[in-house]
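2024-03-11 09:14:02 DEBUG pipeline.ingest accepted 1 chain
2024-03-11 09:14:02 DEBUG pipeline.ingest length=193
2024-03-11 09:14:03 DEBUG pipeline.predict start
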Amino acid sequence: MTEFLSVALGIGLAAACGFRVFVPLLFVSIAAKAGKLTLVSSFQWMGTDAAMIAFSVATAIEIAAYYIPWLDNLLDTIATPAAVVAGAIISASVFTGMDPFLRWTLAVIAGAGAAGVVQSASVVTRAASTASTGGFGNFAVATAELILAVVASFLAPFVAIVLVLCLMIYIGRKAYKRYKIAHPAQAASTTAT
């Protein structure tokens, strides 16, 4: 159960990296420093004062940069690969109790994937905002992304568990529909009981 929660936490934090690269890293640093989060031994550096200061400065610069109209779209070109890398790193840092090969495989596939999907949606949203409002709506987009990054960082395990449950329900429904199509007589008798 501990491994499941660490995977859920890692994927949730990785997804938060898609909104803002450094907010979840700062969250992990503060939580590790406070003793509220256990990191994999090779990532203990994230809970140091130096890392917390570096992540704080990077977070402040990133947040401010997204409020500069022309810089926000330019920043997305840098933030996309950075979010993917940060998603892999942050998820690997909290995937405790795992073989390193499994940890990094999950981090690259699930962590980087979650960050990449969220960042891609963010880029599309910002581009649509720029096109439809001439960039004036990007302030609202930047604020929403910042709020989502903070909330997702705090609620990462819960968000990930809900997403996994939704995915399982979706897959279960699709499988049941296929079963009904392939075996209509058996599905009718199961439904009748």
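2024-03-11 09:14:41 DEBUG pipeline.report The mean pLDDT is 88.
2024-03-11 09:14:41 DEBUG pipeline.predict end
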